[in-house]
Amino acid sequence: MSPDQIRALVRTIPDHPRPGIMFRDVTTLLLDPAGLAAAIDQLAETVTHKPDLVAGIDARGFVVGTGLALRLGCGLLLVRKDGKLPGETIAEDYALEYGTDRLAMHVDACAPGQKVLIADDLLATGGTALAAARLVRRAGAEVAGARFLVDLPDLGGSAALRAEGIDTASLMEFAGH
Hints:
Keywords: Cytoplasm, Glycosyltransferase, Purine salvage, Transferase. Pfam families: Pribosyltran. Its main location: cytoplasm. By secondary structure, the chain is of the alpha/beta class. The mean pLDDT is about 95. The strands form two sheets. It has a seven-stranded mixed β-sheet with strand order 5-6-4-3-7-8-9, sandwiched between helices. The longest helix is centred in the middle third of the chain and has 13 residues, at about 60-70. A hairpin with a 7-residue loop joins strand 1 and strand 2. The chain has one domain (about 50-175): Rossmann fold (3-Layer(aba) Sandwich), CATH 3.40.50.2020. The protein has helices spanning about 5-10, 25-30, 35-45, 60-70, 125-140, 155-165, and strands at about 10-15, 20-25, 55, 75-80, 90-95, 100-105, 115-125, 140-150, 170-175.
């Protein structure tokens, strides 16, 4: 499946969640088995060095992360919204457009020196991915990069990740918000 065919599977919903926003909905891509398989395969091909773990970010990042972990032959680390994990956790706050939120992971989810690839469905401002990277680094592991199905480069997330030394790649880009 070509990149243009995969891109065509992402639905755009105008004015969601508020006027002026063009919401890029990957759930339509996830519904298509050939499109999903091709997207994961093509995203995995951007990874040059096998990580020890893929860190999937709550919630659609779990789908992308699971696919990449299976394709790359490594484990899956869950980065969840705070309060969702049952064991002892470490947490990081990150900025939202109108406030803050908090991500957490188990304290023993990764070991010092392990290489962890961060995965999510969409990269906007980069706040969520940067919070995940801080968690991985606090645990002593190395951020091996970050991968996304969709990048909204106008919002600066890929530039913010690269400024932190994080190798970043996305399967497709959409202009605007």
